[in-house]
Design brief:
The chain is an alpha/beta fold. It folds into two domains: 4-239, Peroxisomal Thiolase, Chain A, domain 1, CATH 3.40.47.10; 250-398, Thiolase/Chalcone synthase (Peroxisomal Thiolase, Chain A, domain 1, 3-Layer(aba) Sandwich). The protein has helices at residues 19-28, 41-44, 69-85, 91-94, 108-120, 130-134, 138-147, 162-176, 193-201, 234-239, 265-279, 297-311, 324-327, 334-348; strands at residues 4-12, 34-35, 48-49, 97-102, 153-156, 181-188, 225-233, 246-255, 288-290, 319-321, 350-351, 374-375, 380-387, 391-398. Strands 5-4-6-7-1-8-14-13-9-10 form a ten-stranded mixed β-sheet, with helices on both faces.
């Protein structure tokens, strides 16, 4: 079994189109939540969204119309991760490298535009590449195409746990030796008229802003973006003198088997415990948890209860924060964006804050690093993802010490 390390990070987010911009904004508590401007989605809601503004596809692609926005984000993030990793994907390594990209919706901009043309405008035909652009696996395929990755390439779709499941599968592949390297993460771009109407119908959208774990929290805010990380077998990374950013040590999964939308603390706790067991670490060795923290009443209380169950007395010593308070809930991309935040917290010795926090809630009684980043040593961190359908996934990462 190989040790698995991270050698590259790439991000496209509402608070920055590259990893350093994203991280600097998180530490500063800068919000990317604002009114929607994307096409007809702006007419769908008066609520805030975590939109990636000022993203110019023409600056990244010769023929941007051939890719849905969701794939554009993934490729741009993957290119940044590749550049930082310093990998040279020649034929031999390309065949030993995987591309695994999670997404909850796939090319929903293409779907929404096509439906509008057919149903609202009475169009007789749609773009000839509608199906290749909208399919859930499109982003994984495009990352493979643009980077020249010739090993296993596939999509993972498990709602809001998609990216974490994708990275976890990549971790298993590299650790087992079935791949030498993997580009894994998540991408989402579903801020459209149709999807916003769907989310509003569930009545879980915030009326003001995202306040994870705060007493007056009243809902989530939809976001978008992408994050890709490069996972690499330690021996391979060491032999080429790579700059190792962190080490992935464990991955845990569970299913609630209980309810399609209501979270179950027991299922969440099982995933956390499984990640700790896989990493072979005790609960009291964890310093920081980047929480799922959506800002909904039920989710935040359930996640808090799960951490009490999984960590016991150590739960009150954890630093816990939700970066969704600044970028919104990027759905299938959320876990990857949050893993990058956890890795940067380890590297920089700074925990990003939970913004918009007003006052404690009796059901949320942990240390949520409210409103201001905290400088502290982070040796080991977890990244939690808990999705609709009761699909739970947790990654454990630690500081690389050789």
């Amino acid at each position: 079994m190989s040790r698995v390390v991270i050698t590259g990070l790439g991000v496209v987010s509402p608070v920055g189109h590259a990893t350093n911009e994203y991280w600097t904004s998180l530490v500063a508590g800068r919000s990317g939540l604002a009114q929607a401007t994307l096409g007809t989605s702006a007419q769908a809601t008066g609520k805030l969204v975590g939109e990636v503004k000022n993203f110019d596809p023409a600056a990244h692609f010769d023929q941007p119309a051939l890719l849905d926005r969701v794939s554009q984000f993934a490729v741009v993030a993957a290119r940044e991760a590749l550049a930082q990793s310093g990998l040279k994907l020649d034929d031999e390594l390309a065949e030993r490298t995987a591309a695994i990209v999670g997404t909850g919706s796939g090319g929903f901009t293409t779907i929404d535009d096509s439906f509008h043309r057919v149903y609202a405008e009475g169009a007789k035909r749609v773009h000839p590449l509608t199906i290749p652009k909208m399919m859930v696996s499109a982003a994984a395929s495009q990352v493979s195409l643009f980077l020249g990755i010739k090993g296993p390439a596939f999509a993972v779709s498990s709602a809001c746990a998609s990216a974490t499941h994708a990275i976890g599968q990549a971790f298993h592949m590299v650790r087992s030796g079935s791949a030498t390297c993997a580009f894994a993460g998540g991408t989402e771009a579903s801020i459209t008229f149709g999807t916003m109407k769907g989310w509003e119908a569930m009545r879980i959208m915030s009326t003001d802003t995202c306040r994870p774990f705060s007493r007056n929290r009243n809902g989530m805010i939809i976001g978008e973006g992408a994050a890709i990380v490069v996972l690499e077998a330690f021996d391979h990374a060491s032999a080429r003198g790579a700059n190792i950013l962190a080490e992935v040590t464990g991955f845990g999964m569970s299913a609630d088997a209980r309810d399609l939308t209501a979270p179950d603390p027991g299922g969440m706790a099982r995933a956390i415990t499984a990640a700790l067991a896989d990493a072979r670490i005790a609960a009291d060795q964890v310093d920081y948890v980047n929480a799922h923290g959506t800002g909904t009443t039920l989710n935040d209380a359930a996640e808090t209860a799960a951490m009490h169950k999984a960590f016991g007395p150590h739960a009150r010593k954890l630093a816990v924060s939700s970066t969704k308070s600044m970028v919104g809930h990027a759905l299938g991309a959320a876990g990857a964006l949050e893993l990058v935040a956890a890795i940067m917290a380890i590297r920089e010795g700074v925990v990003p804050p939970t913004m918009n926090y007003l006052e404690p809630d009796p059901d949320c009684d942990l240390d949520y690093v409210p409103n201001e980043a905290r400088r502290m040593k982070v040796g080991t961190a977890l990244s939690n993802s808990f999705a609709f359908g009761g699909l739970n996934a947790v990654l454990a990462v630690r500081q690389f010490t050789g």
